[in-house]
Structure of AAA+ ATPase domain-containing protein:
Amino acid sequence: MIPRYLQQIIQQSLRFFPAVGILGPRQVGKTTLAKQLVSDLTRPFLYFDLELLDDYQTLSQNAAWVIDTNREKTIIIDEVQRLLPIFPQLRGLIDRDRQPGRFILLGSASLQFLQKSSESLAGRIAYHELMPLQIEEAQSTQISVPTLWFRGGFPDALLAPSDDFWYLWQQNFVKTYIEQDLSQLGINASPSLLANFLRMLAHNHGALLNYSTLANSLGISHTTVQRYIAILEQAYIIRRLEPWFVNVSKRIVKSPKLYLIDSGSLHFLHGLRTQSHLFQHPIAGASWEGFVIEQIIRRLRNGVFPYFYRTSNGAEMDLVLVEGIQPMVSIEIKLSLNPALKRGSTESVTDLGTSHNLVITPQGGNLSVRPNWIHCNVEEAIKQLENLGLAEKIV
């Protein structure tokens, strides 16, 4: 098992809260982490996977009896969003016998999970998001940043013995999502349409999100595309990065940018089979940008929010970190090793008023390239943000 930095944080929640919710995409390691957590607590556990018919029927018909007769155990319920009526029952059982660490609830669809569990378990549950591997986690197993970037952060894909096996894993992962999961989440379309939809999103990675263009290309309605995008976001497949435009008296781009969260899935959808193919492909720059943005976003502390900035006259910044209504850090991301800044970047910093600014390239060096600008790699950038109090430190 690859050590996950959330493990210690979730352990603390288990010592206080009766229930802990772990949300994240499929195959990210939620089940493995949950079983490791109860092992560390030296408490017996009972595991139910609601994708298995027997487990689903057991809990849907006899949840109260099963839980009541296993009070000394931590009960892990996987894919809990498949049995939403269980949440009111859990509330009653918790209130009748409130013990810390009694339930670990795993879910891969955030909106349904959060809505139902928040209604029933408010004050009784702590939530944590487990996402694909971060740089420090991958490096703990001697995996380099370029390998993590190319293969993405799903543990089984990252640890595949060859790129051929990595490609096969991605192929089956995407196929499962298209043929099973997305229909269960509410995307009722043919597998061929969904496959085209995902490929179109991959080709729009890092670009402004235009619902009408996507709808016209697929032959479906504008509102249907919006609904599909929302579902994919809830399933942790994509991320929408919103523009920053508060208190700026300029003509600002107000459409969000779209990114696939996992860089490995992005590369598979572009048909890339090796890292050398990636460097020769037009998507390489946008892929590196999305990879860096995702690594930074996952480390931001509470109260710090990510945006991008773009005006109609050419000022542009890949990532802006905002606390309250105050932009704190501007970040330019380049695949080129040359840290030279364009006029659009310097104009953005003038507009935003940030005194801490980073240009991130693969090589880095923590070098000052001009006043208030540091040239660094992604690991150095995260350290800079930690020192500024904007990012959480991994202990």
